[in-house]
Structures are given as C-alpha cells and as structure tokens.
Amino acid sequence: MQVLIALADVGPGVQLEEALQQAGFTATWDAAAADGPRGGETATVVVIDADHLGKRMAEVAEAWRDHRSVPGIVAIGSSAAAREQAPRARLTLLASTAQLSTLAAAIRDAERLRLATGMRWHVMRAATSLPPADNTSAVWEQTLAAARKVDIEIPRAALRWHAQHYATPTAMLDQLREERLLTVPELATSAHIDGASTIQTLVRCGPLDGVGAARMLWMLASMGAIDLTPEVRDVATPARRALDELRSHLRGRNARLEKSTYYDVLEIGTQAEYDEIEDAYQRVGWRYSPESTARYDLSDVAGLVQPMWDLVEKARGVLIDHAARGKYHDWLRKNLATLRTVWAIEPGPAKLAADAFARGQKALGEGDAHRAMSELATACRHHPGHPDYEANFAWARLRVQVASGKDQRETATTERRALEQLLLGCRPWPRALVALAMLCASAGDADSARWHLHVALQIDPNVPAGAALAKRLGLRR
What we know:
The protein has about 475 residues and is of the alpha/beta class. Helix content is about 60%, strand content about 5%.
C-alpha cells in the first residue's frame, strides 16, 4: 500500500512518514501535494492536511478522487474549520494527536473503501479490474458487463451518500438505450429515472431486485448517464416542476408558521365563519395534506408534512368550536405581541382592506391602473401580506411603471420574484396566481405563466380573468 502524506509542514510530514514506514506502509511525504494533486502522483491512500486546507478541504478531496490512481483519503487536523468541512468532504478526520494505530486503521479503511467514495468513470473501471480508458462508446459494452458483476458493497457504499438525491437522466442514457447496451430489466427499471425520484425509491421500484438496481444506478452515475443532485435538477417536465415547487413551499411554510397563529395556519381572518374555515381547510389540504403530498418523492423534506398537517387539523378543530375559539382568543390577546401574524388583525382594518381591494379590482377592470394601484396600496397597508392584495398590487404597479417608460420585462421580472417569495409557503390563492401568471407572461416566461394559471384554474375554474388569460396563453382547460 502506497501512502502519500500531503502535509504542508516539514516537521509533522517527516515524523508521520517515519512512523508509517515503521508500521509497514510504503509512505512518502510530499509538501508540494498539500494543495491537491499535480498529476504525476501514484498513491493508494492520501493523507491530506485539514488545517492547511480549511474551507478548501472538500474541493481538494474531490480533486484527489478524480485522480487516475483512485486513492482513498484520510484527513488530519484539529481546527474548527477542519471539523466543519470533514462531513462535506465525506472523509474521516483524525486529530493530529491521534495514535499511530488509529491512523493505520483509518488508512486501511480508506484503502478498502476507496472505490466507493465517488461515482466516476475511472473509479468504476478500477473497481471492475479494468485498465484505465476514456469514457467512449467503444468500451461501454465491456465496462457495463464488468460492472454488473462488481462486488455489491462498492455500489452500496457509493450510493449511501446519495440515497436521498434525485436521479436525472442525461443524453448518454438515451444513447445507451439506442445502442441496446442495457438489458431488458435494466431498461424497464431505468424508465423510472425521471428526475423526480430519489435513489432510495429507484432501488425499490423494480423489476430489477435491489442488488441489480444498485449496480445499475452506480454504473449509470459513474458513466455520466444520470446526474445525482440533492435538489430537483431542473423543471424541464411537469413532474419535476410540481415536485420542486412543493419542496420549496414545504420549507417556506415551515418557516412561515413558526410562532404563528391558528388564523395564519388556515390563512383566514378572525371573523371567518364555518364555511370559510372549511373552504380554507380544503385549500390548504390541496397542497399540504399527507394524501396530496404522498404522490411525490419528497426526500429530506418528507418529515415536514405530518407535523404541519397536525397543526392544520388542530387549528381547524379549535376555530370551528365556539367555546375553544373563545378561549383561544383570550390566549391570543395575552400573547399576540410575541407572535408573527398576517391574519390575526382587527376586523376594522380587515374590512377597510377588503373594500379597497374591491375598488382596486374594479379600477383594473376599467383600465385605470393608477387608481387601481392607489386602492390596492391602501388594501395592502391595512392588511399587509394578504396574497390577493399584494399580487394584484404588484400587477397594477407593473402597469403604471411600464406606462411611465420602464422596461416591461425587467420590471415584470422584479415584481414576479418578489411575489413568488411572498407566496412561498401559502395555500394556493387563485386570484394571486392569476396575477403572478400575468407577471410571468409580461416577463416573457410563458411556460411559468401557464403553470401558475393551471394551478389557479384547478382550484377555482371561474377565477376572474383566468379564462381570458388561458385563451391568450393557449392553455387547454
């Protein structure tokens, strides 16, 4: 076993070289390698200098993993930065005072798992005992045949880091299919790779068994036929877009509901009666209920769903029960100053806001954007954060700014981004989504406009301006 000691300082480097040689390793200290490989090194395991590298540890570790000799990696260091970066670099960190026996054991573990720390073409070739070769179609058949027989512990260990990552197909996967290099079960299993499913889901989806699926996913990722990412890679398909949006909404709602009120949970005013409460409950459930979210592979945010929904059920139960609601109002009066709320406001301002919004909507319908903006600004002043008020205010503001000579696309993009942030974590509000769709269309993003309008029409097929905008965008209803 060849051990390269990539420590920056001569003292620790020489001492460690001598100690490892006495322990039976072929060890060489090279300070020039402290900042990463230079290209000519050959090593089975590299000991890197975590204190010297600091925040660059993960970057340098990846550079070593890309090295053609495929070394295992062990880090030595004691700084706070070293302890913070080690998990990101996915390697073992030992203190500089660690005993030689501990270091020797870590080196042997690194050597044993060196072919499982990453999924790269040259690593796969080494793991299958094949000589180095470029990743070209000329050697794909040979490489895939060997990969199907690899020790299963290598794919399992490599995929463990990516169990909750989404697998997205690349053009190479299509090429493998076209050249008929995948077996029939592999073709059937690979059909589930859509960018909206995680590795842990794909391993179980069949028809390949878990072992076969793990090997297939490992070899596809190693070749570059699939990308593995902790977030949805792009929104090129409706399934990915819906998943990406839901993940964002769940995170946003989790932050939004911290120290909130039951009225904020359902997004209703303090004067809401039974029918409005039930309607709000249904609309929250459309996006956030366990039944609705079960259609998606939510990965690391799946744990947010049930606690969030439990809170929705509790809020509904209290607010439809007159006695419980009365006690809750007593509690709110004492604690409102410590809470964050959009919805627990007095009836007077809420009524003023609703009236101003109605006048603003009427002005918009009449084509008077200036008067609409004034009225909608009043609505937002009395009830800041209300999705319908804020969204339509943004639309009116855009129309006024464009009329004054500002660039439409640039202004619409700015308004859109602000509105998307405001709506993050809310239940779906059809009128707000129509306004957002109009902003997207004005910014030149017709796909996003159709998406938001589609959601709005699912909730309320008769939402004002929805039908006209759908016709303009060519959206099938």
